[in-house]
C-alpha cells in the first residue's frame, strides 16, 4: 500500500510538472528559451515514462523513455538551435495573441480537460485517469502554442510538446502494445525529417521561416 | 487454396513498398514511369483476387471482410489508373522543367509508399496499426504536395502538415482512449487493440470513455476526411500539388480516413449505452455540404473548385452513413465509389487542361470542346456526373440518399436537396464557361492519355444505367455490416 501511494505520488508529480512546463512554453518570447523549455519538457517526460516503466514492470517502456531523453531533449533542440542560428532568426517571437490572454486560455483548457477526463473515467483506476487528464492538458496546451505562434520553428515546438502529451497518455494506459510507442517515436522522427525538409526549402526560397511571410500568398489572387 | 504461395494481402502491401524502394534508386523517366504503372497494375490484380480467394482468419494485425475489400479494390484501381495518367502528366512537367529527375524519383517512390500506407490502413485489424498507416499515407502526400517548392506549394504543404498532424494527434488520443475502455474487459496488451476482439466485447465497455474517444476520433479522422470546419488544408493541398496527387487525395485518401471513421462507428454502435454517432455525422455532413456548395461560387482556380466539390461530396457521404440503416448505408457506399471514380476522372482532365493552357484560372480557360474535343467532352461528362445529373452513377446514389432521407427525416432532406441544388448551380455555371464559347488561351494539342479518364467515366455511366446484381448483393451485405 505504501509503495502504491508512492508510485501514485511520483507519477502524479511528474505529469503535473509536464503541464506546468507546458504553461511555461506559453509565455516564452525568445526562440532559444522556448527550445530550452521544450528540452526540459522532454526530460520530465522521459522521467515520467521511466517511472511508469518501473511501476508497471514494463521494461519496454524504458526504450520510450530513452527516446524521449536522447532524441527529444537533446538531438532536436540542438538541431533547432543550429537552424535558428543559421537562419539568423533569434529575435522575438511574434505572438499572435497577448501573453495574458494566452495564459487565460491555457487555464481554461486545463480546466476543461480535468473536468472532462475525470468525469468520464470515474471507474478507471485513479493512476490512469489522472494521468489521462494531465495528458489531455498537455495536448491542448501544445495546440495552444501552435495556434498562438506565427513562426515555423515555434509551431514545430508546439507540435512536439503536443506529441509529448500523447506519449504520456499512451504510457499511462497500462499494457498498451509496444507498436504504438514505437510508432509515436517514429512519427516524431518522420515529422522532424519532414519539418527539416520544409525549413530547408523555405529557407531556400525566402529570407525567413516565418509562416506569416507565406500568408501573403492567397491562392485565389493570382 | 490451390495457390498456397500467393497471399493477396501480403501482395497488396509488399508490391507497393518493394517498388517504392526500387523506384527510389532507379534513374530515368521512361523506365520508372512504366515500372510505376506495372507495380500499380500488379497491386490492383492482387486486390481483385481477394474476391475469389479464401479469406484468411482475422489475425492480430490483418482483417479481410466484405467492407474493406470494396475499399481495397477501389483504392488499387484508382491507384492504377492514376499511375497511367501520372506517366503522361509527369512527362510534360519534366519537359517544362517544373520537376527535376531527382524529384521525379522521389515522386514515384512517394506515390508507391502512399499506396502502401492506404492499403495497410484498409487491411489492418489493429486500431494502432491503422493509425500508423493513415499517418504514413498522410505524410507522403504532404511531401508530394510541396514538391514544386513554389510559394503556394510550400504554404499549402505546411498548412496541410500542421492541420493534418493536429488531426492525427487527436485520432491517436482517441485510439488510446478506446484502448483504455477496452482494457478492463478485453485484457492488457495486444488484444486491447484488435478490432475484431473489440467489437465482440464492445457492449461491456465503459460508455462514457467510449463517447469521449469517439469525439476525438471523429475530430481527428474528420480532419482528414475534410469535413467543414476542419477542411482548411484541403483546397490548398489539391490546388498546389501535382494533379495526379489531387486525384488520389480526392479519390482515395479521403476514403481512407472515412474508412477509419466507419470502423469506429461500428464499434460505437455495438455498445447500446454509448452515444449514437449518427447525429454527429449527419450534422457535420450537412454543414460540409452547405458550406462547400456556397464556396463553389467564389472559386477562380479550377483545381480549388473541384477540391471544394470533394468537401461537398464527402459531406453527402458522411451524412448518408450518419443516417444509417440498410438503404442509406448502401447509398453512401455507392456514392463513395462513384465520387472516387468521377472526381479522379475530372482531375485527370483538369491536369491536362491546365498543362495545355498553362494556368489554373477558370476565366482563362474557354471553349475547350472546340479546341480539344476529346478532353473537353470528357470534362463535360465528368462535371455533369459530379453535378448529379442522370443517367450517370452519382445521380443514382444521390437520389438514393435523398429518397431514403425523405422517408425518415423530411426536414433534413430539404436541407440536403438545397445543398445539392446549390452545388449543381455553381458547377453548371463554371462548366458552360470552361467548356463552351469562344476558345481562349493556348490551343496546343494535348499529349494526353485519355484511357484512364474515359475508363472511369464509362464505369460511372455503366453504374448509372445498370448495377450488376452481384455488386448490389455485395453492397447490401456491407450496408448491413455498417448497421
Overview of the molecule:
The complex is a heterodimer of chains A (222) and B (483). Chain A is built from 8 helices and no strands. Helix content of chain A is 80%, strand content 0%. With 222 residues, chain A is mainly alpha-helical. Chain A has one domain. Chain A has helices at 2-26, 31-56, 60-87, 99-120, 126-148, 152-172, 178-205, 211-215. The radius of gyration of chain A is 18 Å and the shape is globular. The mean pLDDT of chain B is 89. In chain B, helix 2 runs antiparallel to helix 3 (66-95), helix 6 (151-186) runs antiparallel to helix 8 (207-225) and helix 15 (373-387) packs antiparallel against helix 17 (410-435). Chain B is globular, with a radius of gyration of 21 Å. Chain B has 19 helices and no strands. Chain B has a domain at 278-483. By secondary structure, chain B is an all-alpha fold. Chains A and B meet through helix 4, helix 5, helix 6, helix 7 and helix 8 of A and helix 5, helix 6, helix 8 and helix 9 of B.
- Strand-residue fraction of chain A? under 5%
Question: Which whole number gives the mean pLDDT of chain A?
Answer: 76
Q: Give the uncertain stretches of chain B in residue-range form.
A: none
Helix-strand sequence of chain B: HHHHHHHHHHHHHHHHHHH
Give the topology string of chain A: H per helix, E per strand: HHHHHHHH
* Radius of gyration of chain A over all CA atoms, rounded: 18 Å
What is the strand and helix layout of this fold?
The complex is a heterodimer of chains A (222) and B (483).
Chain A: H1 2-26, H2 31-56, H3 60-87, H4 99-120, H5 126-148, H6 152-172, H7 178-205, H8 211-215
Chain B: H1 8-25, H2 29-49, H3 66-95, H4 101-123, H5 127-145, H6 151-186, H7 195-201, H8 207-225, H9 233-240, H10 243-269, H11 277-295, H12 302-323, H13 325-357, H14 368-371, H15 373-387, H16 393-408, H17 410-435, H18 451-465, H19 469-482
Helix pairs in contact in B: 1-2, 1-4, 2-3, 2-4, 3-4, 3-10, 3-13, 4-5, 4-10, 5-6, 5-10, 6-8, 6-9, 8-10, 9-10, 9-12, 10-12, 10-13, 11-12, 11-17, 12-13, 13-15, 13-16, 13-18, 13-19, 15-17, 15-18, 16-17, 16-18
Amino acid at each position: 500500500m505504501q509503495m502504491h501511494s508512492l508510485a501514485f505520488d511520483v507519477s502524479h508529480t511528474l505529469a503535473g510538472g509536464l503541464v506546468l512546463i507546458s504553461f511555461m512554453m506559453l509565455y516564452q518570447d525568445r526562440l532559444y528559451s522556448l527550445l530550452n523549455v521544450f528540452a526540459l519538457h522532454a526530460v520530465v517526460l522521459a522521467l515520467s515514462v521511466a517511472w511508469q516503466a518501473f511501476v508497471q514492470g514494463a521494461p519496454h517502456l524504458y526504450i520510450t523513455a530513452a527516446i524521449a531523453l536522447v532524441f527529444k531533449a537533446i538531438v532536436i533542440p540542438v538541431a533547432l538551435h543550429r537552424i535558428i542560428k543559421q537562419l539568423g532568426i533569434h529575435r522575438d517571437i511574434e505572438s499572435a495573441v497577448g501573453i495574458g490572454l494566452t495564459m487565460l486560455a491555457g487555464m481554461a483548457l486545463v480546466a476543461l480537460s480535468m473536468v472532462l477526463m475525470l468525469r468520464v473515467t470515474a471507474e478507471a483506476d485513479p493512476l490512469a485517469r489522472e494521468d489521462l487528464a494531465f495528458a489531455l492538458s498537455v495536448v491542448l496546451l501544445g495546440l495552444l502554442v501552435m495556434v498562438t505562434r506565427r513562426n515555423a520553428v515555434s509551431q514545430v515546438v508546439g507540435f512536439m510538446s503536443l506529441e509529448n502529451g500523447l506519449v504520456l497518455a499512451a504510457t499511462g494506459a497500462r499494457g498498451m502494445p509496444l507498436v504504438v510507442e514505437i510508432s509515436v517515436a517514429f512519427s516524431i522522427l518522420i515529422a522532424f525529417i519532414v519539418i527539416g525538409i520544409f525549413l530547408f526549402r523555405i529557407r531556400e526560397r525566402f529570407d525567413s521561416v516565418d509562416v506569416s511571410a507565406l500568408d501573403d500568398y492567397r491562392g485565389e489572387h493570382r | 487454396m490451390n495457390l498456397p504461395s500467393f497471399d493477396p494481402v501480403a501482395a497488396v502491401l509488399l508490391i507497393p513498398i518493394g517498388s517504392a524502394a526500387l523506384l527510389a534508386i532507379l534513374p530515368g523517366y521512361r523506365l520508372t514511369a512504366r515500372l510505376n504503372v506495372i507495380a500499380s497494375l500488379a497491386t490492383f490484380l492482387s486486390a481483385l483476387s481477394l474476391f475469389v480467394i479464401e479469406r484468411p482468419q482475422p489475425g492480430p494485425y490483418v482483417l479481410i471482410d466484405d467492407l474493406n475489400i470494396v475499399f481495397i479494390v477501389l483504392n488499387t484501381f484508382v491507384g492504377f489508373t492514376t499511375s497511367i495518367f501520372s506517366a503522361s502528366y509527369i512527362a510534360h512537367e519534366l519537359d517544362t522543367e517544373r520537376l527535376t529527375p531527382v524529384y521525379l524519383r522521389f515522386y514515384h517512390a512517394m506515390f508507391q509508399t502512399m499506396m502502401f500506407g492506404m492499403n495497410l490502413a484498409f487491411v489492418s485489424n489493429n486500431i494502432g496499426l491503422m493509425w500508423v498507416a493513415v499517418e504514413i499515407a498522410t505524410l507522403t502526400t504532404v511531401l508530394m504536395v510541396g514538391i514544386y517548392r513554389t510559394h503556394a506549394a510550400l504554404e499549402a504543404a505546411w498548412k496541410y502538415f500542421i492541420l493534418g498532424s493536429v488531426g492525427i494527434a487527436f485520432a491517436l488520443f482517441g485510439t488510446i482512449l478506446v484502448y483504455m475502455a477496452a482494457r478492463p474487459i478485453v485484457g492488457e496488451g495486444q488484444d486491447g487493440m484488435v478490432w475484431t476482439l473489440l467489437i465482440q466485447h464492445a457492449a461491456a465497455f465503459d460508455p462514457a470513455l467510449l463517447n469521449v474517444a469517439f469525439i476525438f476520433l471523429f475530430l481527428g479522422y474528420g480532419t482528414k476526411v475534410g469535413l467543414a470546419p476542419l477542411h482548411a488544408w484541403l483546397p490548398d493541398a489539391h490546388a498546389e500539388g501535382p494533379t495526379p496527387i489531387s486525384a488520389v487525395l480526392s479519390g482515395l485518401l479521403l476514403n481512407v480516413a472515412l474508412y477509419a471513421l466507419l470502423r469506429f462507428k461500428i464499434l460505437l454502435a455495438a455498445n447500446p449505452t454509448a452515444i449514437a454517432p449518427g447525429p454527429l455525422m449527419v450534422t457535420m455532413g450537412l454543414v460540409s455540404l452547405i458550406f462547400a456548395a456556397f464556396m463553389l461560387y467564389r472559386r477562380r482556380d479550377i483545381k480549388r473548385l473541384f477540391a471544394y466539390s470533394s468537401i461537398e461530396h464527402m459531406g453527402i457521404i458522411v451524412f448518408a452513413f450518419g443516417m444509417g440503416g440498410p438503404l442509406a448505408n448502401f447509398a453512401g457506399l455507392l456514392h463513395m465509389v462513384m465520387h472516387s471514380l468521377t472526381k479522379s476522372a475530372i482531375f485527370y482532365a483538369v491536369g491536362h487542361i491546365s498543362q495545355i493552357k498553362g494556368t489554373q484560372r477558370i476565366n482563362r480557360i474557354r471553349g475547350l470542346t472546340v479546341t480539344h474535343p476529346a478532353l473537353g467532352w470528357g470534362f463535360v461528362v465528368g462535371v455533369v456526373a459530379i453535378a448529379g445529373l442522370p443517367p450517370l452513377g452519382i445521380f443514382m446514389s444521390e437520389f438514393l440518399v435523398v429518397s431514403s432521407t425523405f422517408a425518415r427525416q423530411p426536414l433534413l432532406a430539404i436541407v440536403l436537396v438545397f445543398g445539392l441544388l446549390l452545388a449543381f448551380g455553381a458547377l453548371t455555371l463554371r462548366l458552360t464557361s470552361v467548356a463552351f464559347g469562344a476558345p481562349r488561351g493556348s490551343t496546343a494539342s494535348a499529349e494526353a492519355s485519355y484511357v484512364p479518364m474515359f475508363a472511369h467515366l464509362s464505369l460511372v455511366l455503366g453504374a448509372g444505367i445498370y448495377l450488376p446484381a452481384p455488386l448490389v448483393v455485395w453492397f447490401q451485405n456491407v450496408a448491413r455490416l455498417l448497421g
